Amino acid sequence: MSLALSGIGVSRGIAIGKAHIILRGTVEVLESAIPEPLVEDEVVRFLKAVNCARQQLEDIRGRLPENTRVDIAGFIDTHLLMLDDATLVTTPVDLIREHGCNAEWALKLQRDAVVDVFEQIDDAYLRTRRDDVDHVINRLQRILLDDEQDDAYNAGVPLDNAIVLAYDLTPAETVLLEHQGISAFATECGGPLSHTAILARSMQIPALVGTHGLRRYIRDGETVILDGLQGILIAGTDERVLDHYRNRQQLEQQRQLELTRLTDTPAITRDGKCITLMANIELPEDIDAVSRESASGVGLYRTEFLFMNRSAPPDEEEQYDCYVSVIEALRGKPLTIRTLDMGADKPVDGSSRSCSNPALGLRAIRLCLKDHSLFKPQLRAILRASAHGPVRLMVPMLSNTQELHQVLSLINDTRNALQRESLAFSPDVKIGAMIEVPAAALSASEFASHMDFLSIGTNDLIQYTLAIDRIDDEVNYLYDPLHPAVLKLIKMTIDAGAAAGIPVSMCGEMAGDTRYTRLLLGMGLNEFSMHHTALQEVKRVINTSTITSLIPLVQELLNNTKAGRIPGRIESLNRNKR
Fold it and tell me: What percent of the chain clears pLDDT 90, i.e. is strictly above it?
């Protein structure tokens, strides 16, 4: 009898193989008192664990082939850097000395404090960076507890074509397992924006996350099928089902080959409409991937990484140098820089501020307008960097025109100040608004009359419209890009841009999901920005679409949004080859 477990497909593809179960789960930590004479010994024990963790990661890093892509190796480098961060190293030492507690407990206290800060960040992508904190701290805890059984780091046996099933996997473990020959993996926790999920897409390993109960219901060594597109893990199959998925595997391999041929091909619909495909990036190192996938530029550059895990915010010069390095690496392609999108209890000043609902509190542009010491240096750095290449400045979480006018006034004041100081900047920097609050979408025509472009941030727009947190396992089933209210807000924004004669882009996950590409084309969207791994997939759909045929079909869909009917209509739209 077949068993099918549902998860979140984070990397498409089909794998058939033997289940390799990693039994390791969460780490249980208890508090114990350390006698005063032994406190320094406990500090030494903790620092030895840090060194051991660093050696493990450096070992894994050293095993990577020389031709490993920079973005893949970068995930391990991120964890190595975290082991040099005072937040995770110095503070636990202080806690051991202050409380006279064991190293494991001090590490847990610091983990809870750091993760609480990440929980206050409303940007879902940045909030999932808490997973990296957990991965590094769990590695340290296992070393301290001498609990590294079933750790992928220690697994020396070959795993050719195995499908790994685990509670969670770190990016380092994922890289190591890939080099041991696994064909896919599924985890019980994690989300689509975690670094492990992004890494799976980058390495084209079929993967599921959030597959609850998989280690309870599946036996080690039994044959399983993992479908990353449909988000299911199947066990107990017969030969007929296996043959079906083997055929699908062959079709998927053929599709991947076709995608590689699209890299240098422009995104043009069958009726000759050119569509702009751009990439979202978080770190300067991501530029290599942008170039490799022949993106038209960067449609979203998250700047928050510059402000995180430090005692003071970056000054103007540090930001300027960073932005210039990205601009120069793009070699003339446009860079869209989003201004700081973090909450008031950001980890840049060592303090914490209580907020009953951080998603609706003082964050993003609200924080920047309240604290000019954060905002003005960033505006100056962005404008100065614009002298080195095409730059667009994008403002997050605008909800009313009063905020908009304040921002435009500050930008104008900054331009005047730079001019007085004889500092170079481009007078042609385009200023855009992110439409991610329902109120902004409803007022899109007003925003469009003052801006050079609009960008729809669907991740937050959907969350705010439906009042759910999409990375919360308890309610993420309610996250629905096809909800009639969401579609109306998107269409309203696209129409407002068209009426004002300004471009409208989309930089949320919806832009990189091929299930919605034809829908968005029919709505009038002609600029998409997404994770680089989705670019060729979306391009393939664009190149086989005819906008003049899609427009009336999409309009009919929007006019008839009865409950439960939209997903079927989308499937029909995607099957239509006109």
Answer: 58
Band (pLDDT 50/70/90 cuts) for residue 287 is confident
Task: In whole angstroms, give the CA distance from residue 383 to residue 395.
Answer: 14
Contacts of 281 (CB under 8 A, 6+ apart): 287, 289, 290, 298, 300, 301, 302, 326
Residue 186 tokens read as: 């599924």
Decide: helix, strand or coil at residue 294: coil
> 489: burial class by Cβ within 10 Å (0-12, 13-18, 19+)?
buried
pLDDT of residue 347: 43
| Whole-angstrom distance, CA of residue 560 vs CA of residue 35 | 71
CATH class as words, domain 36-144 = mainly alpha
Q: Which residues are catalytic?
A: 195, 507
Secondary structure (3-state) at 321 = helix
Q: Say how far apart CA 46 and CA 107 lie, in whole Å.
A: 9
Domain 261-575 belongs to what architecture? Alpha-Beta Barrel (3.20)
Assigned token pair, 338:
């989003």
Sign of CA dihedral 80, 328, 455, 407: positive
Cα dihedral 9→13→17→23 (10° resolution): -30
pLDDT score at 350: 41
Report pLDDT for 309.
Answer: 63
Q: Which residues contact 378 (CB under 8 A, 6 or more apart)?
A: 303, 316, 319, 339, 340, 368
CATH of domain 3-24+158-259: 3.50.30.10
Domain with CATH 3.50.30.10 in the chain: 3-24+158-259
pTM for the whole structure = 0.74
